[in-house]
Design a protein that fits this description.
Blueprint: H1 3-23, H2 37-41, H3 53-64, H4 86-98, H5 109-126, E1 133-137, H6 140-155, H7 160-163, E2 172-177, H8 182-190, E3 198-201, H9 211-223, E4 227-234, H10 246-256, E5 260-263, E6 288-291, H11 293-296, E7 304-308, H12 312-318, H13 349-383, E8 388-395, E9 398-403, H14 410-427, E10 433-437, E11 440-446, H15 454-469
Parallel strand pairs: 2-3, 2-4, 4-5, 5-6
Antiparallel strand pairs: 1-7, 6-7, 8-9, 9-11, 10-11
Helix pairs in contact: 4-13, 5-13, 6-8, 6-12
The chain binds pyridoxal-5'-phosphate (PLP).
Pyridoxal-5'-phosphate (PLP) binds next to helix 6.
Length: 471
């Protein structure tokens, strides 16, 4: 492609993205595509002759766009948000243009140094312990895996990388809350421990992990020769936003000398609000912590900030230096490839730099406070409603509810809520997801999209009420 043609398309696509973001509300939030729609429209094999960008772009609009769920739609209240923002998108343009592979300091010094500085900015913003050193991983799942690897390496006195699970005198074991994200169990699988090594510690009425049950589980395992490898606490569990008692858990971890990781993938961003800090009391006892700026800090997926007290616990488990990766420069700075599962690394720090400077800390705090305030306001509306039940109180910007018209038994209530959720999402007006609370189906409502305003929450709730009336 000639440079002039590239320039023409680049300008046009930038304009298209700007238009898209301005008009995103016109789309159904969740794609209305049926299984196979795109597959049947695509030729089975790659074209032999080059095609024009105009033709490809036409097909993007006609074929691909209908199969997109619009995560940047302000009525996206499902899962946890995967947010972007104008500064972040602009940075991603630059990142795509540079297409740098930032595995070593030498392969892009600015990427390593910006990553160091951005994770330091985040550490200060969130009030994390001074000793924490950060890196940017692709996802919360990878960060949780890295924590498990670091923990197993610590439990085996630095022999996990070399010897694997055989380095431990008994089965390495991971402890986490029954409310923990599935990536913790997946991490245990990938680390070679298996699902059977994961102890899902019961929760208390406030949904937090029961620290006494944790201590008892560890004691029982030690008595049978198992080796505690890692404790993973929730700071904002996925289903209902559970927050574990970090201090009590951290004390157990210290007593037993077990690596203590805190998964704040979603809620971690809120630690930049002084009023939220007390919820994380005891975080200074953690050995590692993750939160995802790609969830609730308006930074394009993928961007997961992973902090460790002793990075050597992980680096020892992962670092390999074949001759072709040897650097001619001794910088004394981190070689982040030793802190990552993949060797190759995207330049993720750039979009963080744009977001943190583009909003400023105060701009970010304002947005987070709005989301939390609107969640509390919505909770008040649900509490006052005759046919709906607020099943769990707001945890930061997440609440759960269910439709509970009079005269239905427990099984019928579950079925009605499943049906309601299907109809809500089929309507395209808003997007919600479900979870279980006390073994019953409840619907989650997460307020955290970059472009959401109170109007979208109000209209979303009005849609829920209207659709419920027809179920
Ligand atoms: N931890 C928690 C608490 C989550 O909610 C999620 C995803 O929603 C993850 C980890 C996994 O994050 P990622 O999608 O970045 O792998």
């Amino acid at each position: 492609m000639e440079a002039a043609e590239f320039r023409r398309h680049a300008g046009r696509f930038a304009g298209w993205v700007a238009d898209y973001l301005e008009t995103v509300e016109q789309y159904p939030v969740r794609s209305q595509a049926r299984p196979g729609d795109l597959l049947t429209a695509l030729p089975p094999a790659c074209p032999e002759a080059p095609e024009s960008i105009d033709a490809i772009f036409h097909d993007f609009q006609e074929l691909v766009l209908p199969g997109i769920t619009h995560w940047q739609h302000p009525s996206f209240f499902a899962y946890f948000n995967a947010n972007a923002s104008p500064p972040s998108v602009l940075a991603e343009f630059l990142t795509a243009g540079l297409a740098a592979q930032c595995m070593l300091w030498e392969t892009s010094p600015a990427a390593t140094e910006l990553e160091m500085r951005m994770t330091e900015w985040l550490r200060r913003l969130l009030g994390l312990p001074k000793a924490f050193v950060g890196s940017i991983q692709d996802s919360g799942s990878t960060s949780n895996l890295c924590a498990i690897l670091a923990g197993c390496n610590h439990a085996t006195q630095g022999r996990f990388g070399e010897e694997g699970v055989a380095a431990a005198p008994g089965p390495l074991t991971v402890y986490t809350s029954a409310e923990a994200h599935s990536s913790v169990e997946k991490g245990a699988r990938i680390a070679g421990l298996g699902s059977a090594s994961v102890r899902k510690i019961p929760i208390r009425d406030d949904l937090g992990m029961d620290p006494e049950a944790l201590a008892a589980a560890i004691a029982a395992d030690l008595a049978t020769g198992r080796v505690p490898g890692c404790i993973v606490a929730c700071f904002g569990g996925t289903g209902l936003g559970s927050i574990d008692p970090l201090r009590a858990i951290g004390e157990v971890a210290r007593r037993e000398d077990v690596h203590f990781h805190v998964d704040g993938a979603w809620a971690g961003s809120a630690l930049m609000l002084p009023e939220v800090e007390p919820l994380a009391d005891g975080i200074e006892l953690a050995d590692s912590f993750v939160f995802n700026p790609h969830k609730w800090l308006f930074t394009n997926f993928d961007c997961s900030a992973f902090f460790m007290r002793e990075p050597s616990r992980l680096a020892q488990a992962l670092a390999l230096t074949p001759t072709y990766l040897e650097s001619t420069l001794a910088t004394g700075l981190p070689e982040y490839r030793d802190w990552s599962v993949a060797l190759g690394r995207r330049f993720r720090a750039l979009k963080l730099w744009f977001v943190l400077r583009g909003y400023g800390a105060e701009g970010l705090r304002t947005k987070l406070r709005q989301h939390i305030e609107w969640t509390n306001r919505l909770a008040g509306i649900i509490r006052a409603s005759r046919d709906f039940e607020l099943t769990t109180e707001p945890r930061l910007a997440l609440l759960s509810f269910r439709y509970r018209p009079a005269g239905l038994d427990i099984r019928e209530i579950d079925a009605v809520n499943e049906a309601l959720l299907r109809r809500i999402n089929d309507s395209g007006r808003l997007y919600l997801t479900k979870t279980l609370y006390r073994n019953q189906v409840v619907i989650r409502f997460v307020i955290g999209q970059t472009y959401t305003t109170w109007r979208h929450v109000e209209e979303g709730w009005a849609a829920v009420e209207a659709i419920a009336a027809s179920v």
